[in-house]
Amino acid sequence: MNERIEINPNILLGKPVIAGTRIPVYLILNLLASGYSFERIIEAYPVLTEEDIIAALSFAERRMRFEETYELEPVSVL
Fold it and tell me: Is pTM beyond 0.70 here?
């Protein structure tokens, strides 16, 4: 795992965060998906660096690459 990403059950219930912060990876992904540039994210969260944002993207890509999906069977409701 990238040293910039930390998973600790005592920080945000174990959600991946930028190491040394409480800024979750999902927040960075959400900001990027909403059209924020790296510069705008760093302006809003000055503790972050461009390398942190790249690390969040890389972490998410690796997680998605190895994710397995299964088709669920329909559940009947009584």
Answer: yes
